[in-house]
Structure formats: structure tokens, C-alpha cells
Amino acid sequence: MRFGKLCLQTTRETPADVKIASHSLLVRGGFVKSLANGIFSHTAPARLAILNIERIIREEMNNIDGQECRFPVVMPKELWESSGRYTSIGSEMARFKDRNGKDMLLGMTHEEAAVHLAKSFVGSYQSLPFMIYQIQTKFRDEPRPRGGLIRLREFTMKDAYSFHMTQEDLVEYYDKAYEAYHRVFKRAGMKNFIAVKSDMGMMGGDRADEFMLISPIGEDTLVLCDHCGYKANMEVASSVYDKQAPQLPLPLAEVFTGDAKEIQCVCDMLKVTPDCTIKAVVYAVKGEQGTVIVFLRGDREVNEAKLRAVLGKNIVAWENDGESGIAAGNIGIKDLRAKNNTVVYDISIANTVNMVTGANKPEYHLVNFCIDRDLPDSRSIKYVDVSKVKEGEACPVCGQPLKLVNGIEIGNIFQLGTKYTKSMNMTVLNERGELVNPIMGCYGIGVDRMLASIIEENHDDKGIIFPVTVAPFKVHICGLRMDDPQTKETAEMLYKELESNGISTLFDDRDLSAGVKFADADLLGMPIRMVVSPKGLKDGCVELKLRKESQSERVPVEAVLERVNALIKELSAEYYY
RNA sequence: CGAGGUGUAGCGCAGUUUGGUAGCGCGCUUGGUUCGGGACCAAGAGGUCGCAAGUUCAAGUCUUGUCACCUCGACCA
Fold first, then answer.
1. A479 and A531: one domain?
2. Is residue A336 exposed (0-12), middle (13-18) or buried (19+ Cβ within 10 Å)?
3. Which residues in A154-173 are b (16+ Cβ under 10 Å) and which e?
4. A260 lies in which domain range?
5. How many domains does chain A have?
6. Measured in angstroms, what separates residue A484's CA from nucleotide B30's C1'?
7. A485-500 and A560-573 helices cross at what angle (nearest 10)?
8. Span CA (A517) to C1' (B49), Å
9. What number is the ipTM of this complex?
10. C1' nearest to CA of A13: which nucleotide?
11. What tens digit of pLDDT does each residue of A462-487 get?
């Protein structure tokens, strides 16, 4: 491709509202153009990089016997009602009516379509297992898109669906997919990624893993143990606690605390630390009356994802309407008289003694509260784990201190079970002639987000450093002094030679100064830069430089093709799995 | 949904306090000189100042409404 004719403009300045490196470089390099909130157009180089990523994904999916299919973007309401998700998914699903007033929606994932397709073509166990997948545009009306291509409303996703007769068969395939995902990310030039156990979210199912690129800009928090290798998303990470030091129970007493409501204020007033208190956090249940009150140790925070999983209900922020009977700021376990509420006891308060807690009346707290002594029905309390893991807390597996890092979710895999095949009534005959629901797995990769993540991990202060496997072009020719006939002729000749030998090349044939061309070459980040100039041609040479290196080499014009091929081979070796 | 911010040329911004001919830098066009790390000179093109209504002799500027975008928040009782 010729730079001079590219529909693209590089810029020196980063737009003021851009916060992260990949977004900045994608915009400055002219790869993407924001069209609306969370919706981008891609220029040719971005498209080429995406196609390279898709090619890697296709190869790996085909390698685990995937069949590339295609599901519709637009689907009727009825299909999604059959799985129950038409109502269970909120406003992130875009809905509209067609000309006849029929309710339609834009696909945000395709379990329903996959089951719809599979159930009509598959009647017996002899066809199973199989996996179907697609790479296609999804639309999710995210509440807050951000970070350029990191969180989009319209995006490209590879989504795969596998069907099995037994759980064992699913697990076996799941492990193959798990390995295939590692190969995809490795081949695409990612280094610092890991798989962690994750929440099921809207998918439902038995087990899920997320593939995370460890990065400070990641939106997810990951809990890791360097000692035993425990890895989990914060959303599902289990907590274990230091047991309270043994102490004699002191008499329960009510103390005046006035306006002190927040944990820290109460602690300051009573001269205690937050881990000696029990606090209450109140939620509302989405679409239902009443509240959920969570009691947990004052130094802990509620993990809403774990709470949702425990309740099996969606919770939302609670707003005090003054009618709930709740003494906000002074809520305690003892004599809680709130109406219509579900009470959740976190394991952090089990068997605690001498704690500070709300007195369930304004301006008062209790001190020396001992849950087993002061609650008549304490034995019937079922404690659950709903708090967030903290940095340094003991690993639930080996007890060593945990560390927290941020991660960008670049892919996920789920063991769905029969959630969709049951609800959508997909059955096949087994060996004994009985009708059974196949067991499903599903496997997603965010393609655009992968591009952004690759750039997050592969750039310097001058621009992108594309892995050779993903780079839109392998070679970037900078023709210096294109007004010089011999230089122009040689650059043209080399460009055509590379292209005709299957080496994708970006040819900067513009009549601009060397500095501009070098800056653009660094910004766009192709792995090999070739400088064709009168200076080099004087000795019959051109200059080759790798984007990731600072040293260049001089190569005779006639040896260029061979040398470029060798460099590509060398660069590619890094990304073999 | 809540709070804050921003909408002026393709991009980045000034101008708004105090109403009075639409500005700067980058980019773009033409000519010339340069040219191996974001060159210089000269001459140009390009904007109904997000949109709508209002106040005024006069609105980018004041008033009201509205739309869009950005950031943070939407557990810490």
C-alpha cells in the first residue's frame, strides 16, 4: 500500500480526552476514528491488523475442530424469550421494532442462535461432540464505553459453542480450548497474560475462566498467589480470615455516638480499629420490594458479584426512602426491626467477640457485641463469603499472602451445562435411544480489545511496536528524497518486489522530509523499516532496521528480499507456541 | 442513573469575564528554497462558533431549552 494514497492522517498531538496508550496511538496513527460513543471506524491498517488477529484465531479454532459458521446480527424477540434472556438482560441489549411492529434485537452474544441452529440439524449422539464458531460484530449498549477499543459498544467477537453428550467430554474439550486460547494470545504477541477463574455473569453455567492481560489499565482486579499459583478474578476469589485473638467477652453496652455513622468516625470516637466493628451494607433487589442487609467486619468490603451469586438475585444500590425502618448509619444485628429484608452474614463476623455495631436506633452503637452470646438464634445463622479479598490476605489454598493486579479481559471460556439446551428444548438421542439435553461450552474472544491490548503491551514512547504476526504490513519503506530519480526508481522496484513475493509492505512515497517519515514509521510500528535514500544507494545499499531495535544494518539492494525474509522468519520465531 | 467538564476549520486550542468584521498552531493547496529524525519563505483554501428559541441596533460571547461527547461515580451506611 502506498502511504500517499492512504485514507488516514497521523497526528502529532494526542486528543485531550485520551487516557491510555493504545487509544492514543490508535488515534494518532490514524488507525481508528471515533464516530459515536464507543463506536469506531477502522482505517485500512487497523483492518489489516484485525484480519491478522482473526486469521490466528481461525487457525486455532479450526485446529480444535471448530466449524466456522455465521449467526445473524438481528434476531427476533421470540428466540431470546425461549432462553429467558429477553427479560433477564437489561438495557445493554439494543431492541427495536421492524416495520410490522415485531420486536427485534441486536445480537450481543449468540448462544440462542447456536442452539437454534444446532437443534435443527443434530438428532443423535453420533454427531457429537462438535464446535461451531463465528467472528462477527456484536452490539452491547454499555453504560460507559471507555479506553478507545478497550470497552466498546460495537465490537468484533469470536464466539464459539461446543456441544457434548457428557460432562467429561465437555471438560476434555474445555481443556483443549483453554490450550488453544493460550496459543492464540501467544501467537498474537501477548506475553503477560494469564487465565483466572471467573464469575458466570449473564451466561450462567458451572465453571468459567477468563484470559487476562495483566495491565495497570485493566478494569478487572485479579487475585494471585505467587506461591501456589492460585489465580482468580476478584469477583469470585474466596476469602479466608485471620481468626480474632482470643479474648474474654465484656458486658454488652449501648453508647451514644451522635452523628458518627461511617465506620471510621465511629472507630475514632470509640478508639477502636475497623476490624473490631461489624458494619451493615444495604442493597435493594432489582425488581423486588425490600432490601438486602449484609453484615460484615468493618475493615472488609462487600463483593457484589459474590453477593449476587449467593442470593441468586441481582442487587442494586439502595436508596433510603425513610420507610424501610432502617436506621441508616446505626444498623446492627441485634434487634433489627427492618421490614421486608434479607439478612446476609459474612464469614468475617462468625464467632467474633467484643465488637462495635449499630444499635438500630439513631445516634447509638453497641460495644462488646458477641454474636454467639448476644443473639438468641445465633446457631441458626448461615455464614457466607461475600467480601472482597484484600491485598496481602492469606491465599485460600496455601495461606501465603495474596497480591492484587489489574487485568484486561481478552477472552473467556464457560462450561455452560444444559442451561440453553434445556430451556430451548434441544434434545438428541443417546446410545440407549433416550432423549437428552446436550451439554454446552462457549468460548469468546474480543477481537478489537485484543488489538488494543497488544498495543498496550507492545509500544514505546514513539509509537506502536507491532508483533510481526499482527502487523498490518511487515515492511515499511521510507523513500527519502523521492525527487531523486534513482532513489524513486529503486524504492518502487523494491516495493513491487516485496509485494510480489507476498511480503505486505507500506511504501511511504510521499515527498516529505526524513524526520516526518521516520516519526510516522515509529508511530505506525511495522516490524521492519527499510530506508531507501541516495546516501545508501551510493554504495548500492538500503538500510534495514527493526522497530524494536535501535541499530540498523545496510543491505545491498539485490540481497534485500532474502534478508527481509530472514528477518521475518527470525521475528516470527518469537511467536510460535 | 448521579456529579463535574467540554462543544469554535480535518486535528489541538484561544477568544466568552466586559456583546461590536472569526483567530492561533498542526494538517491541506500552489510556487520556491531545503531535506537522514517532525525544515523555511511566500501566497491560498477551509468555520451558518453543537442545535433551537429568546434578549439586543448588534450574540461565539447574555438567557432558556435541547443534543452530543469526555471524566469520575453509581458497595464503604
1. yes
2. middle
3. bbbbbbbbbbbbeeebbbeb
4. 253-384
5. 3
6. 21
7. 50
8. 35
9. 0.90
10. B12
11. 999 999 999 999 999 999 999 999 99
